[in-house]
Amino acid sequence: MMILLLQILLMLALLVLAIPAAVLLVQVLAARWAGPQPVAESPQRPRMAVLVPAHNEAGGIAEVIVGIRRQLQEGDRVLVVADNCSDATADIARHAGAEVSERFHDTLRGKGYALDHGIRHLAADPPEVLIVVDADCLLGAGALERIARVCWRSGRPVQALYLMHAPAGAGSRRKIAEFAWVVKNLVRPLGWHKLGLPCQLMGTGMAFSWQQIGQADLATGHIVEDMKLGVDLARAGQAPLFCPDAMVYSHFPSSDSGAATQRTRWEHGHLSVILSYVPRLLGGALASGQGALAGLALDLCVPPLALLVMMAGGAWVVSALVAVLTGWLAACLLATLIVAAIAAAVLLAWSGFGRDVISLRELGAAFAYVARKLPLYCKFMFNRQVEWVRSKRDSE
Question: Which structural domains are found in the chain, ordered by start?
Answer without folding.
Answer: 46-253 (3.90.550.10)
